[in-house]
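Example S7 (structure tokens).
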């Protein structure tokens, strides 16, 4: 039997509790008529949405005992579902002894409360489920803070006066809530105070990250960031490119905390590769806000690799979801620094591959098809990254005296050394690549010893 890591041991109570929670997933999606209208705007198919919802439930080890897809003609203000469907699901909940009902939609606090009364079971919506997953996955202190902030924002929206246990009056001293203050007002105030403290802590994290980025800008390593829909294979690709051992599992949100490693490029250069949290459709707004400090690494990247699971039936819709979130972060769709990577080639048969390529792959702005699992196409991807990083950078030959150790050290610290040759007379010939903001400094210091290409 394999030994459990400390992280696994700490999670054991959570996993045990989840495995003991009999869960029903309900996918309430628009009727065919409404779907046709929605899909013109890029909506995803009900089948893919339902499969993803069940995957989200399994991602935190819930015991999925039943699932039900519901076709909606109209959304009911009180219960989201129609009366007959509520009664039908209530009977299923009783028959299967369900403890938790996951609704793959956004419920209002009133709808959630009414469904809990009808089902006599705990009910959470899509946002609540994603927050639970993020809470389970967070490992670093920063990640824990970001998830807690998002969770508090969600809880605050759930405090409604119709929850009777929050209606009681409380007296007491000022620091416990003034005379006549209701429990709901106290809870809301305490949540707000905690949110302010976390935001203050995260502001410190943001400043620390800015300092780290500033210090990295003094080092000649450009940044390459991986983005993509959750479970698109970003972590597997990260491991393949850097020979790292980042957790890469076939589950949604296997990666939450950002990871960075050195990436070696074909012609001797190097970059820092950053793995980020996966995106998902209908990602809660409070999560995007909470993780903005982490996602700023994407904004600072010199190259962004948009990784797509090209074998997935809803790959196009997933791509639009990622582009929408990038747009919210301020990254323009189709920006020159974005390289689209079609991953999971190993899952396609010969006919699907032929349809995928049809002679269009390989151009400068075309997607690059790879298999992070088998390594197919990785060499082409590395060359594409190197070529994209070279945009706007000057390639220069420099010749130094062998005794000029200080100059040699400076070049290694401030430029990308692409090649080096030591001649018989002791001189050192270097081929370097220089970022625009450092070209003037290189010219001033080594102008007499360099020749541009």
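Recovered sequence:
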């Amino acid at each position: 039997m394999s030994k459990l890591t400390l992280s696994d041991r700490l999670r054991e109570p959570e996993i045990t509790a989840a495995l003991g929670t009999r869960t029903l997933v309900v996918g309430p999606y628009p009727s065919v008529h409404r779907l046709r209208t929605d899909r013109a705007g890029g909506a995803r198919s009900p089948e893919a949405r339902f499969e993803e919802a069940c995957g989200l439930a399994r991602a935190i080890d819930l015991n999925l005992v039943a699932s039900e897809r519901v076709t909606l003609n109209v959304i009911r203000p009180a219960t989201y579902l129609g009366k007959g469907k509520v009664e039908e699901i209530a009977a299923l909940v009783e028959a299967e002894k369900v403890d938790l009902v996951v609704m793959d939609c956004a419920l209002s606090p009133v709808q959630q409360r009414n469904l809990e009364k009808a089902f006599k079971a705990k009910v959470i919506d899509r946002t609540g489920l994603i927050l639970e997953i993020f809470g389970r996955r967070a490992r670093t202190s920063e990640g824990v803070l970001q998830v807690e902030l998002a969770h508090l924002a969600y809880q605050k929206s759930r405090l409604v006066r119709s929850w009777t246990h929050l209606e009681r009056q409380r007296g007491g001293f000022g620091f416990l809530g003034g005379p006549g203050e209701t429990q709901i007002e106290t809870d809301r105030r305490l949540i707000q105070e905690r949110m302010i403290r976390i935001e203050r802590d995260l502001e410190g994290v943001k400043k620390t990250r800015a300092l780290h980025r500033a210090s990295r800008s003094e080092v000649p390593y450009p940044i390459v960031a991986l983005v993509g829909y959750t479970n698109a294979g970003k972590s597997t690709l990260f491991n393949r490119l850097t020979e790292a051992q980042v957790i890469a599992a076939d589950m949604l949100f296997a990666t939450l905390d950002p990871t960075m490693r050195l990436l070696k490029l074909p012609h001797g250069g190097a970059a820092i590769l950053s793995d980020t949290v996966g995106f998902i459709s209908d990602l809660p707004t409070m999560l995007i806000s909470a993780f903005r400090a982490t996602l700023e690494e994407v904004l600072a990247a010199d190259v962004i690799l948009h990784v797509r699971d090209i074998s997935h039936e809803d790959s196009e819709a997933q791509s639009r979801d990622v582009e929408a979130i990038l747009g919210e972060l301020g990254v323009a769709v189709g920006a020159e620094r974005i390289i689209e990577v079609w991953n999971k080639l190993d899952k396609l048969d010969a006919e699907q591959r032929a349809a995928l390529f049809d002679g269009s792959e390989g151009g400068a702005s075309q997607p690059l098809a790879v298999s992070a699992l088998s390594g197919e196409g990785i060499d082409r991807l590395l060359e594409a990254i190197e070529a994209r990083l070279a945009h706007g950078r000057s390639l220069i030959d420099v010749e130094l005296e062998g005794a000029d150790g200080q100059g040699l050290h400076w070049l290694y610290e401030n430029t990308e050394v692409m090649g080096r040759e030591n001649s018989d007379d002791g001189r050192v010939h270097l081929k370097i690549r220089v970022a625009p903001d450092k070209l003037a400094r290189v010219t001033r210091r080594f102008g007499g010893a360099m020749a541009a290409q």
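Notes on this example. The mean pLDDT is 78.
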